Amino acid sequence: MGLDRYVNTFNRYLRERFGERVARISFDTGIPCPWGKCVFCDNRVFVPPTAIVPEGHGWEARFVAQRERAAARYGARKFIAYFQSGTSTAGDPERLGALYRRAAHLDGVVGLSLSTRPDHVSEEIVRRILAAVPSPDTDIWMEIGLQSIHPRSLAFLNRGHDAADYDRAVEMIHRVGGDRIKVSAHLIAAIPGETTDDLLETVRHATAHPAVRGVKIHHLQVYRETPLAALFEREPFGLPGEEEYIALLGDILRALPPRIVVMRLFTDAPDDRLIAPRWRSGTQELLRKLEEHCEKHTIRQGNNGVPA
Ligand code: SF4
């Protein structure tokens, strides 16, 4: 159970929806991000070396090998094909549609998840996604990187889009895809200059539309050889310690409607890539501490400070 007692976690959602444990397997379109300018971005952190591009020689065998590894490690027999890196809706729509179809029809795959930017979601691509995954038994998730609704923060991160792009993308996905497509918002916490209220405003805005069914949140990290690293070295800015971030997560969880599936709350990075913040605890320990924090402060997702 763990954190599931306090939070509508993705694992809990998947168990309720598919009746058993579902594991994620990383896929990649192989197409570079057309923006490539976010100050924090380091594809060596974001693209797992094992991510599968579903075309060309040998990709199906790589999927089978990963499926077997996931089965041995988690006892999973069902899988989400997760196009997690870069902007997985950017590129030739016909080719992308073929990649999505191949991934979604693999044996054991019960869901397709695509991460992207709000300004790279066209009506055509949404129709290709729907055509690639016709069965309602297979989940479709579109994870849209908003990060913040605040113009100053988006400029700081050099995202190259605004909150209105996100609102337009979500509305269009809902209009074209109806209930077939579940949107999740990708947000960054503890952006320099943002207050807790700023962050909660982003959380509420990002999850208000009925098409938005999930959220993925993590704190800002500084990776080596990125524009953010150069900025951090020139003018170091404050980043949260682990206790401070856990307290912030408590506030976020209270503000999150219970219907929203929480897909992620922590992130980690290879030790040799991460400059700051450097925390003592690993992800499992952090999850345990968050659980303790929720218990101690009577936090339940969406309870807004009211004991459940
Ligand atoms: S949109 Fe995503 S992949 Fe592209 S530069 Fe920004 S963070 Fe990196």
Question: Which features does this protein show?
Answer:
two-stranded antiparallel ribbon; TIM Barrel; binds iron/sulfur cluster; alpha/beta; 11 helices; 308 residues; globular
The SSE order reads HEHHEHEHEHHEHEEHHEEH
Q: What is the total number of structural domains? A: 1
User: Largest sheet, described in full?
Assistant: 7 strands, parallel
| End-to-end separation | 17 Å
The 3D shape can be described as globular
What's the CATH architecture? Alpha-Beta Barrel
Helix content: 25-40%
CATH superfamily: Aldolase class I
Our count of helices gives 11
Structural class comes to alpha/beta
The level 1 CATH classification is Alpha Beta
Range of strand content: 15-25%
Rg, nearest Å? 19 Å
Ligand set: iron/sulfur cluster
Mean pLDDT: 95
Number of beta-strand segments: 9
What CATH calls the topology is TIM Barrel
Q: Within the largest sheet, what's the order of strands?
A: 1-2-3-4-5-6-8
Low-confidence stretches: none
Describe how the helices and strands are arranged:
Elements (H helix, E strand, L loop, with lengths): L9 H9 L3 E6 L15 H4 L12 H16 L3 E6 L9 H12 L4 E8 L6 H10 L6 E9 L3 H7 L5 H15 L3 E9 L6 H11 L5 E8 L2 E2 L3 H8 L7 H14 L5 E4 L9 E3 L6 H14 L12
Parallel strand pairs: 1-2, 2-3, 3-4, 4-5, 5-6, 6-8
Antiparallel strand pairs: 7-9
The structure holds iron/sulfur cluster (SF4).
Provide structural commentary:
The chain has one domain (2-296): Aldolase class I (TIM Barrel). It is 39% helix and 18% strand. It has eleven helices and nine strands. The protein has helices spanning 10-18, 43-46, 59-74, 93-104, 123-132, 151-157, 163-177, 196-206, 227-234, 242-255, 283-296, and strands at 22-27, 78-83, 109-116, 139-147, 181-189, 212-219, 222-223, 261-264, 274-276. The strands form two sheets. Strands 1-2-3-4-5-6-8 form a seven-stranded parallel β-sheet, with helices on both faces. Bound molecules: iron/sulfur cluster.
